[in-house]
Amino acid sequence: MKTRNKILISTITLILATTVNGVDQGLEDEEIQAQEYIQELNYEIQMRRNQEANAEWNYYSNITDETERRKLEVSTENAKFYKEKAKETLKYNFHAYQNDDLKRQFEKLTKLGYAALSDDKYRELQSAITSMETNYAKIKVCSFSDRSNCTLQLDPEIESIFAESQNPEELKYYWEQWYNLAGTRTKKDFTTYVRLKNEAARLNNFTDAAQSWLHEYEDCTFEQQLENIFDQIRPLYQQLHAYMRYKLNQKYGNLVPLKGAIPMHILGNMWAQSWDNVAEFGTPYPAKPVLDVTEEMIKQKYTPLKMFQMADEFFESLNMTKVPATFWQKSIIEKPKGVELVCHASAWDFYLTNDVRIKQCTRVTMDQFFTVHHELGHIQYYLQYQHLPQVYREGANPGFHEAVGDVLSLSVSTPKHLKKIGLLTDFDDDEENKINQLYKDALDKIIFLPFAYVLDKYRWGIFRGTIAANEYNCKFWKMREEYSGIVPPVQRSENDFDAPAKYHVSADVEYLRYLVSFIVQFQFHKGACEKAGEYVTGDPDKLLSDCDIYQSTAAGNAIKAMLSLGSSKPWPDAMEVLTGNRKMEATAILEYFAPLYEWLVKTNTENGVEIGWDLTYECAASS
Q1: φ, ψ for residue 245 (rounded to 5)?
Q2: pTM assigned to the model
Q3: Which residues sit opposite 358 in a β-bridge?
Q4: Euclidean distance between the first and final Cα of the chain, in Å?
């Protein structure tokens, strides 16, 4: 009540104010009042965010009708609150304020998001998203070898099959089962979601939801920047694609054409977003040992807990922040028995001081070891900016959060680092092994780029109306073929709906952040490595792919300085702190993979391998 009275008195004062000596005294008084208002509002938002985070945590870690009901209830209550506060905030003449930081906070707080919708439509939108998420989380598939066993879930059972099986029929079976259950059943909810997401965007003064997503990057040229970057990276992707197609043809014969797109089910991943699980088919120097310390981890009795403890120690070695004691008490780092939960690895900020957690069904593997470092990268970001006003407690742009964790993984995955921590003992890091390692990294990092680009470019088309509802599925697969050179293993039609078979589409998660992160992480890595004295451009003895910033406080302090800004500054300001560069570009990632690109061009030329693919995919007629 006191706050409302203060605001009322201030408003009356502003109306009566006059301009003295060219200074608008009323505006100055309002700006002083606005400082107090924004401070109180940040506190209120903090409490609301904490309440919502707890409701979401309870749902995602234990999916029941009750936790789903409570999650929606809290979300709806908070939407009303944000709508009221946004209207109240818009009464301030903040665009005319002298204090740039205050203006930035007001600009952020006047964004309503979904709360701009009416209460009924807000609930309808949240119900549609929750329905898609719940469907995704609860899917169980029958076994290929025992159809009476219908208990297989995506993580870990089906993902493990895709990683290990070399039976095309088995892989095709699981692919079709998953896409039919995870995607096709959600089309009605997805249609509702698109309609209401666009309506919310227009209520927030955007033309559509695509513009609202791109607006988060604070650069009207950002979409064109991405096109330019993809043009730069395409030659490397095409060389890698052609090489793998040639090797898979040797493995599977006519199933994989020597020209054209690759059937995606044999690429070791449900979505063909990473091909590193089939790396063994084309290892450049197969006589060399494969870099995989999973067996050594098991031999040394690694546990999920130890993996997280070691990742925490990595950050400490950089003079960064040790995770708080409550992290270990409240996190879920192993899959609990008898509980329905979303196993997708995620880091959580509860918006109070030192209340951060991880939810991950961790397995003892080398890849999971890297994932642990990635997730703790998110946690470290939360800890570094937790001193800021609530409105700034987020990444400098949506891609920064993902990039920070991966920067650490780039160091952790080097033979140099794995030797330091005692997981790699008998491994000669010569030129052939370096090419092998870059090849395997590229099957993850480079292969991912067109996949990530299409996932949002496709949704932008839907939001903008350039992809109609009666062509959702056909357009999706045509875009996948155009950018990634892959096709589904079975014929699809508009009776199917396959994009939501990827979690982030079902869960309304913008995916551009991952594409951005895969680009800027190499810029971050280059900047950190230069500060650590681990990389010098043009020095063959200090390659970017060999860099390990472990125990470098110089690198850690620079990263920490960038993270501590949160979103209080535009993202180019934050990136400049670490990299000295204000633009997103492909130079660093191309430098990282330069030795591999040279090897691929030479090898493909010698073998007469054709580069690229024609666009031939056609959907079947709908029934």
Answers
A1: -60, -40
A2: 0.85
A3: 347
A4: 62
Backbone angles phi, psi at 238, to 5 degrees: -65, -35
Which 3 state secondary structure label does DSSP give 358? strand
pLDDT of residue 23: 52
List residues with catalytic annotation: 375, 504
| Count of residues making up the chain | 623
> What gap in Å lies between CA 86 and CA 106, rounded to an integer?
9
DSSP reduced 3-state for 51: helix
3 state DSSP class of 401 = helix
Strands (E) in 384-460, as ranges, are: none
The conformation of residue 141, written as its DSSP 8-state character, comes to B
Confirm if 89 and 109 have CB atoms less than 8 A apart: yes
Q: Which residue has the tokens 């054209």?
A: 260
Rounded Cα–Cα distance for residues 48 and 51 (Å):
5
SS3 332: strand
DSSP run (H or E) holding 532: none
Tell me what pLDDT residue 408 has: 86
SS (H, E, C) 412-423: HCCHHHHHHCCC
Q: What is the DSSP string of 383-426?
A: HHTTTS-GGG-S-SSHHHHHHHHHHHHHHHTSHHHHHHTTS--S
**Measured in whole angstroms, how far is the alpha carbon of residue 194 from the centre of its chain?**
21
Q: How far is CA 16 from CA 24, 68, 347, in A?
A: 11, 50, 50
pLDDT digit string, tens, across residues 210-264: 999 999 898 888 898 899 899 999 999 999 999 999 999 999 999 999 999 999 9
Which of helix, strand or coil describes residue 313? Answer: helix
The span from the CA of 62 to the CA of 78, in Å, is 22
Q: Is residue 417 classed exposed, middle or buried when 0-12, 13-18 and 19+ CB atoms within 10 A define those classes?
A: buried
